[in-house]
Write a structure and sequence with these properties.
2 domains, globular, 8 helices, about 210 residues, two-stranded antiparallel ribbon, disordered N terminus
Length: about 210
């Protein structure tokens, strides 16, 4: 029975969901129906995030690089940049946002289907960066709720992928939706910059 339970643990829902395993020899997973449905929905959302084209400055070049063959965002079910907000559920704001662009960004965000997520890529999008003047928005979180901040000037593909992975984990666990329902704001998660950081030897050898 111990072997059966250990095998079942591989299919266990993510943290935040309550699942119990029967001890009658049948190896049956018992959980609440609504929890099972929510876990399945969040699992699907986390593994099929389609992002909205919104490159505004040099950060957009790094975002394009992340979608290329070397980094291959298709591994995460994100192989297509969507040109329509109605086909996208994640907006990556890559670059500085001018005051004239702010209402356009908000309109496109409003046209995206729920649930939707936002990644602020780079210091210019997150805080205005070096452009502390009247022409630029000093943080995109003044316009749309931001779920993950990717630091750097510009952040490379490694940092962007780290931000996407952090977002996917939060979507699958259900934390983001619960927080959105409670506060109406984004998660505001800040990831560390990963550009140029070598992978651990175990991870490198596992990919070979």
């Amino acid at each position: 029975m111990a072997d059966e339970v250990s095998n079942l643990n591989l299919m266990a829902p993510a943290k935040g969901y309550d699942a119990r395993y029967s001890d009658d020899g049948g190896g049956v997973i018992t959980t609440r129906v609504d929890q099972a449905i929510n876990w399945l929905l969040n699992w699907g959302r986390a593994n099929s995030v389609w992002y909205m084209l919104f490159g505004l400055a040099c950060c957009a070049l790094e975002m394009m690089g992340a979608g290329g063959a070397h980094y291959d965002l298709a591994r995460f079910g994100m192989e297509v940049f969507r040109a329509s907000p109605r086909q996208a559920d994640i907006m990556i704001v890559a670059g500085r946002v001018s005051q004239k662009m702010a209402p356009v960004l908000r309109q496109i965000h409003d046209q995206m289907m729920e649930p939707k997520w936002v990644i602020s890529m780079g210091v210019c999008a997150s805080t205005g960066g070096m452009f502390n003047n009247y022409a630029l928005v000093q943080g995109v979180d003044q316009i749309v709720p931001v779920d993950v901040y990717a630091p750097g000037c510009p952040p490379g593909p490694e940092t962007l992928i780290h931000a996407i992975e952090t977002l996917r984990d939060s979507i699958e666990s259900g934390d983001l939706l619960r927080r959105r329902q409670q506060t109406g704001a984004g998660a505001g998660l800040v990831v560390e910059q990963r550009d140029g950081v070598r992978e651990p030897a175990a991870a490198s050898s596992a990919r070979v």
